[in-house]
Amino acid sequence: MNPSHDEQRIRERAYRIWESEGYPQGQEMKHWYEACEQIDAEDTGGRTSEETLDTASGGIESGVAPPMPDRQSEP
C-alpha cells in the first residue's frame, strides 16, 4: 500500500478513537499508536507487531517507527 494512504488511514482511525473517547486533549500520541496497532493487526491477520517482525525479519527489529502526527502549537 502507498505510504501516504497508510498515513491517511492511520490519521482517520486515530480521529475516530479520539472521538470515541470524548475528544480528550493531549492524547494525540496515544491515539496515533493505538490506531497503528489496530491497523497492523488487521493487515497481518491479527498477529501482533512482534510476531510480524519475527516472521518478516527473522527476529531482528527494524527500528522504524510510524510517522508522528503533526503537533499544533498550544495556546
From TrEMBL:
**Region (Disordered) location:** 40-75
Q: Which InterPro entries match?
A: DUF2934
Pfam short name (any one): DUF2934
Protein name per UniProt: DUF2934 domain-containing protein
